[in-house]
Amino acid sequence: MNKISQTPFIRNEKQWYCLSLFYAREKWDELIHEIMRFYQERQHQFSACLLTFSKEKGEHIQIALAVSCNDTDNYSDEIQTCFQSFLASHPSTDKTPFPYGEAFWCNYPDNSLIWNKLMLPDDSEVYLSFHQRTIGVALDLLAGDFAEDNFLSLGIYLLTKALCCIDGQEQINALSEAHRDVSIGSSHFIYTVKEVMNVIDINEVAETIELYKHENTDKHSVELTNWLNEVRNLLGLYSYGFFCTLFCEIVGLKGLRQVMLLELMYICFNRRQNEV
Q: What DSSP assignment string belongs to 158-218?
């Protein structure tokens, strides 16, 4: 094991232990249960546990565990032993076809544990609370189904609900800026996005977004209500575009998926504006 890679990094008076567990998404429910069991049994040690979904270099869940800077113990071996044992006794099989042309970059093997320096985009209490609430509402809405299509539906739903936290007259401006910013840095995705847009029923998506916008708040779960409160706090500090980037990073929808989601929303919101 590489001892340097396991050294916690320090930010905002916390030591962060960061690792990735490469595990097929079909069994993420089991893995998340094990992660939460580990954390809940050790809340006297760890002050926070952040999860991030990803498929870069293979399907995996990133974990960031925080301890106080005053804690002189090193928990690397304890963390390693627990999760290596789980991976060995409950292996998964990644059935995702390997993307042609990406062999050069090499995915990590399924059921592997990789220590890494996951750098949090923000170490403020507002962001940390938002991150935890985002995973909470995502798990509630996904309900154990971690299929990629389900994540895209989750993205459309929560990005729409977040946009509704902005004053009605400012929503289209905020969305336009977010769409512009993500498009500027993603010109290499343009052809793929256009192909996807040609096969999507835009009218159906637009109708769905309208339903989301006008959903009765009485139907909101506790998790969604709490998450929206965190979104309002975050939007008090950052733009909607930066919020989208943070959200998509946490739930594994960054890159092409973020571009597609914002393109869809931009088309649907503008179409609605033109109809009014």
A: HHHHHHTTS-HHHHHHHHHHHHHHHHHTTGGGHHHHHHHHHHS-HHHHHHHHHHHHT--GG
* Residue 114 three-state SS: strand
Buried/exposed code over 189-218 (b: 16+ C-beta within 10 A; e: otherwise): beeebeeeeeeeeeeebbebbeebeeeeee
In a domain, 122, yes or no: no
In this structure, the number of other CB atoms found within 10 A of the CB of residue 21 comes to 23
Alpha-carbon distance of 159 to 162, in angstroms, equals 5
**Would 35 be classed as within a structural domain?**
yes
- Report the C-alpha gap between 113 and 99 in whole angstroms: 22
| Torsion angle defined by CA atoms of residues 110, 115, 119 and 124, in that order, rounded to the nearest 10 degrees | 100
Query: Would you give the distance in Å from CA 33 to the centre of its chain?
Result: 17
Same domain, 268 and 151: yes
Amino acid at 170: E
Give pLDDT, residue 210.
94
207, 271 in Cβ contact below 8 A? no
Q: Is the pLDDT of residue 2 over 50?
A: no
Query: For residue 41, what are the domain limits?
Result: 4-115
| Per-residue pLDDT tens over the stretch 41-85 | 999 999 999 999 999 999 999 999 999 988 899 999 999 999 999
pTM of the predicted model as reported, rounded to 2 decimal places: 0.92
